[in-house]
Amino acid sequence: MERHGGRILADQLALQGVSRVFSVPGESFLAALDGLYDVGIPNVVCRHEGGAAMMAEAHSKVTGRPGVLFVTRGPGATNASSGLHVARQDSTPMVVFVGQIARGDRDRGAFQEVDYRRFFGPLVKWVTEVDQIERLPEYVSHAFHVATSGRPGPVVLALPEDMLSARADVPDGAPPARLPPEATEAQVAAILEALNAAQRPLVVAGGPQWSSRAAAHLAGFAEAFDLPVAVSFRRQSYMDNRHSHYVGDLGVGMNPKLGARLARADLVLALGTRLGDTATNGYTLLDPTRPGPRIVHVHPDPDELGRVWRPEPGIALSAPAMVEGLARLPSHPGPWAEWTAAARAEYEAWSTPKETPGAVKMERVVAWLSAHLPEDAIVTNGAGNYAAFLHRYFAFKGHGTQLAPTSGSMGYGFPAAISAKLEHPDRPVICLAGDGCFQMTLNEMSTAVQHGANLVVIVANNGRYGTIRMHQEKTYPGRVSGTDLANPDYPALARAYGGDGVVVEEQSAFPVAMDRALAADTPFVVELRLDSEALATGFTLSEARAMGEAG
User: Fold this and answer.
1) Domains of the chain (ranges plus CATH)?
2) pTM across the whole model
């Protein structure tokens, strides 16, 4: 049957099990929009390609399947690049389709022309351009395979407009068949041997491909061997934070005692994590150029093993497959019961709220959320000092309840929350955002209203880019430049879009505001008016300035 390229493409997406795509429409891929209409795949139309890319990335995290994004050529593609950077750093599978100029106009500087292979090359796993309509099924199948294999990540297919609108009679391409990865006896034995030789082990879980099943296996393995388990930056939902063997996260604003424990460990069992600069505090807690603990490194990308750390051994396998094998081992606690208990006690002390100035206190806000939200609530955030309160004081109870960018991208939390709410309309979805973070993507409020995503946004309004101001005061105390913000009336803005909201200026008003927000059937903004002195979890603005003056 002869079909135009857009219909051929849409049929391949249906075969790959795609249930929803995200886009900002463009004339360069009208045929693809027509194909999606025919096949009936829902298309979430967004307001900016950066927000659309972040929604697609979050969709992948929520569903475990590649997120799919459509953007137009030129500025559409460049706008989307911020979300692709998130996906690359977070190892999130995405398949991105970019409209392209007609093939006969290449290399003339045509309207919105971009060389996508060169532009996206450093950002994604694979990028190419489909010149022959007959090969569309082949390219789509390969794109999904590359996005999900090894270390997952984003891929880009550029679609010349004239190719996409042409017609051809070509067979569909079935998705590749795969066997699930399994740990071998030798791989499990290697980890057991390393544990038997250790006195101060620390498990560090992170990376891609985790699930509720994998989280249960990790907890079972930790219990059986009495092991302390830390997680890497913004991977806190990989283990119930209330579990007796969970000891905290190795990320920005980490517990200094946990960092010291990483440095003192004689065995680090790295499951899925790359043990990058964030987890190691800029490679100071562990230094790849100096002797350190034995590192047993499990990672799905064989090229990652040995790239920074010398693994003893390195195991090319996904972390979930490894923990499934480890969970089958019989109980065998090692001689480190005191080490594990002390690490847990340090986490509990660290997560006890420390008071900050002002009538509204972020530590109390987060503690209330942790204590009162349903266990399956999904909490999202972008980047900023406000997020450190969430990392420190919120107890994540299950896998898939945290959506946050390990890349540190501002503006991520709100589009991610929209995507999560569309996928799980019956679960509470709460976006915690700073005033600077929220203003980067708040135009997607229109997307949330249009598609019925009744999420809650909690805006921490301190009138500044708080993280940058913190560093500014430490480095150039009292010389404030470029970090102050003018803010709108956020609840009024939400109402203008068709949502609702309320301002909270006293702590006692927050629970009432949240009750109203969680009951709302439209997007709801809770704006927190914070004291200007409330800068971070560990110190005030004045204290940060004093550090700079003393340094």
Assistant:
1) 3-168 (3.40.50.970), 185-350 (3.40.50.1220), 362-550 (3.40.50.970)
2) 0.95
